[in-house]
Amino acid sequence: MQAKDLKSGMWVEYQNGVAEVIDVDQDHNTAIIENTNDHRRININCDDLVEQPQLHTGCDSYY
């Protein structure tokens, strides 16, 4: 994904599972995400994120 496609509160997938986007840095194409399992926040390159439209806000499982 690209930073311009991300918004705070959006749910995405990355190599360690599902995360919520906390903040986006469009200048560096990075985002701060929070893992839904352990609530750790990490700074990650947006290219490593995958949009998952089947995830809905407030739930980290598929519907």
Description of the structure:
The chain has no helices and five strands. It has 63 residues and is an all-beta fold. The protein has a single domain, classed as SH3 type barrels, CATH 2.30.30. It has a five-stranded antiparallel β-sheet, with no helix packed on it.
Q: What's a concise summary of this model?
A:
This protein has 63 residues and is mainly beta. Helices cover 0% and strands 41% of the residues.
Q: What's the CATH architecture name?
A: Roll
Any idea what the shape is? globular
User: Which radius of gyration do the C-alpha atoms yield?
Assistant: 10 Å
* Strand/helix succession: EEEEE
CATH class reads Mainly Beta
Strand content: 35-45%
As a percent range, the share of helical residues equals: under 10%
Strand line-up in the sheet with most strands = 4-3-2-1-5
**Which structural class fits the helix and strand makeup?**
mainly beta
How is the quaternary structure best described? single chain
Tell me how many strands there are: 5
| Average of the residue pLDDT scores | 87
Count of discrete domains: 1
Uncertain runs are: none
Tag the structure with descriptive keywords.
5-stranded antiparallel sheet; globular; 63 residues; mainly beta; 5 strands
Question: Which SSEs are present, and which pair or pack?
Answer:
Elements: E1 11-14, E2 17-25, E3 30-35, E4 41-45, E5 50-51
Antiparallel strand pairs: 1-2, 1-5, 2-3, 3-4
